[in-house]
Amino acid sequence: MNSLNQAIRLQKYIAQAGIASRRKAEELIAKGQVKVNGKQVKEMGFMVNPGDEVVVNGQLISTEQPLVYYLLNKPKGVVSSSSDDKDRDVVTNYVPSDFRVFPVGRLDRETTGALILTNDGDFAYMLTHPKYDLTKKYRVSVSGKLTYKISTQLEKGVVIEGVDYQGIEFENVTYDSKKNRTQFSVTLHEGKNRQIRKMFSHFGLPVLKLHRFAIGTLEIDDMRIGYYRELKPFEIKTLKQEAKGDK
């Protein structure tokens, strides 16, 4: 039930209830999975008034819950979702089940590292929408030698199968000639699907290991794989400022 004292857009209400990010909420509405006061709603601009009952996938939802923010060191082989129709392990299994949370963005199944889970839809929207600029840093290991020519092209940005990928920044590049393997850190300013893997595969350098160690200035540090911690209030505030460009 809408416990707020003012009308708000349906997708924002769903996000505030911790069901999904605002963009995912729009998908749920478009698919006809949302009802307000017993009637199916597919209109994005629909306003939820105080006292209205909102049901998503047959479940009555409410905005009456505290906001929580978790930082998880995601294990390999885990799906970045709150549920999975193939019954695979999901990231929400690694944080408390007291509140309904969802991942902010995603890491592919084989990638490890920093992933935020929350029930704050507005916060998730700010951290993932393309109009905001929140950098992410990864440690990468590829098969083959990363040459100066290839790294220069990647720093400028590339187009792969009609998709434009922004340039990335390199640090700490090392090459192991015995294993024919290059290791380095990269900074991304966007988050397209499987972006790092696609960019390096394009140049014949398949990614062997991929680990995200920072979201903005928030770093995973020495947290063990599969463990989580709550974000501190100043960390939440800093992430919002960084996303908006207030460095």
| Overall radius of gyration | 20 Å
Number of helices: 6
Order of helices and strands: EHHEEEEEEEEHEHEEEEHEEEH
Fraction of residues in H or I helices = 10-25%
Basic shape:
elongated
The CATH superfamily of the largest domain turns out to be: Pseudouridine synthase I, catalytic domain, N-terminal subdomain
Distance between the termini: 38 Å
* Structure summary, number of beta strands: 17
Per CATH, what is the topology of the largest domain? Answer: Alpha-Beta Plaits
Quickly give the CATH architecture of the largest domain. Answer: 2-Layer Sandwich
Number of domains: 3
- By CATH reckoning, the class of the largest domain would read Alpha Beta
* Mean pLDDT value: 92
Unreliably modeled segments: none
Beta content comes to 25-35%
Largest β-sheet summary? 9 strands, mixed
What does this protein structure show overall?
With 247 residues, this protein is α+β, with helices and mostly antiparallel strands. The protein folds into three domains: 8-61, Structural Genomics Hypothetical 15.5 Kd Protein In mrcA-pckA Intergenic Region, Chain A, CATH 3.10.290.10; 69-130 and 222-244, Pseudouridine synthase I, catalytic domain, N-terminal subdomain (Alpha-Beta Plaits), CATH 3.30.70.580; 135-215, 2-Layer Sandwich (Alpha-Beta Plaits). The chain contains six helices and 17 strands. The strands form four sheets. Strands 7, 8, 9, 10, 13, 14, 15, 16 and 17 form a nine-stranded mixed sheet that branches. The protein has a four-stranded antiparallel sheet with strand order 3-2-5-6, with no helix packed on it. A hairpin with a 4-residue loop joins strand 13 and strand 14. The protein is elongated and about 65 Å long. The mean pLDDT is 92.
